[in-house]
């Protein structure tokens, strides 16, 4: 564990608590002994308005490494999501343009990461290297109305009023300290 990364993540949480994004939550998880695990964050990403994702609130976990912010955290959804860049292990395959050195900068923070996740949900990476759910990609490319129907179904399952999603959101909010 890098002390510099931990200091940066502590500063990011302070910034997050001062200026949260409405409908989103973010904060470090807790270890079994009750201490904060700064390298693993529990978060909730809201679906983008005016899209099939808009009613969803999606619990995700960010796994940071010692190279952050020069290397993005791994992103794992806490439940199954129908999306071209999310496979059966529920990890989001981050689009290659997000990994460009010009995008990764010292200003990269949890706010930008969560907004990037929200953006990727709506605009999946269709490049060969990012195709982890071929059925979702096929529908996205060939039958957008059916794809949007499937996405809206998933989003409604993950709405704030949905029992399963609500449980994940409450856990994420509790762990995030919000």
UniProtKB/TrEMBL annotation:
Q: Which PROSITE patterns match?
A: UBC_2
Which residue numbers delimit the UBC core domain? 4-160
Q: Which InterPro entries match?
A: Ub_conjugating_enzyme, UBC, UBQ-conjugating_enzyme/RWD
Gene3D superfamilies in the record: Ubiquitin Conjugating Enzyme
User: What is a single Pfam family found in this protein's UniProt entry?
Assistant: UQ_con
Give the matching SMART domains. UBCc
Specify the protein name: SUMO-conjugating enzyme UBC9-B-like isoform X1
| Annotated source species | Drosophila pseudoobscura pseudoobscura
């Amino acid at each position: 564990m890098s002390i510099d990364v931990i200091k940066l993540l502590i500063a990011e949480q302070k910034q997050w608590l001062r200026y949260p994004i409405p409908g989103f939550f973010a904060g470090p998880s807790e270890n079994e002994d009750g201490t904060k695990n700064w390298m693993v964050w529990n978060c909730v990403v809201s679906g983008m308005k005016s899209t099939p994702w808009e009613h969803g609130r999606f619990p995700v976990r960010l796994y940071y490494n010692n190279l952050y912010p020069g290397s993005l955290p791994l992103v794992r959804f806490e439940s199954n999501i129908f999306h071209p860049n999310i496979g059966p292990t529920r990890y989001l395959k981050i689009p290659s343009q997000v990994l460009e050195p010009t995008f990764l900068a010292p200003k990269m923070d949890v706010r930008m990461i969560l907004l990037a996740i929200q953006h990727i949900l709506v605009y999946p990476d269709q490049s060969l290297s990012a195709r982890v759910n071929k059925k979702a990609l096929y529908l996205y490319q060939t039958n957008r109305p059916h794809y949007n129907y499937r996405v809206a179904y998933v989003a409604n399952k993950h709405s704030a009023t949905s029992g399963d999603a609500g449980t994940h959101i409450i856990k994420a909010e509790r762990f995030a300290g919000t």
